[in-house]
Amino acid sequence: MDVTQWWPRLSPEARDWLVEHNGEPLDPAVAHEILAVNDGVTDPGWWQGDPADGMSELTDDVVDWIEAVANGEGPAGG
To answer: Which end of the chain has fewer beta carbons closer than 10 Å to its terminal beta carbon, N or C?
Structure first.
């Protein structure tokens, strides 16, 4: 599922966290929620995976998409 499909399915709290902490490793609760709305399926188009420290990350493209949304430039930002 593409970020444009799962973003609106996240809770407002998870979306707020992603905007406020954009580009940072994911909070475990936020990572869990993203996986839950995607039925546990990750897509290499948006999920970078789990680096050695165990913290999940999103891809640069998704980080850029979230930044655009936060700036009111993306489809979910207006």
So the answer is: C
Whole-structure pTM value: 0.85
Determine contact, residues 15/8, Cβ cutoff 8 Å: no
HEC secondary structure over 10-63: CCHHHHHHHHHCCCCCCCHHHHHHHHHHCCCCCCCCCEEECCCCCCCEECHHHH
Contacts of 16 (CB under 8 A, 6+ apart): none
Backbone phi, then psi, for 3, in 5-degree steps? -55, -35
**Number of other CB atoms surrounding residue 14 within 10 Å:** 21
44: tokens are: 């290499």
Helix (H) and strand (E) counts in the chain: 4, 2
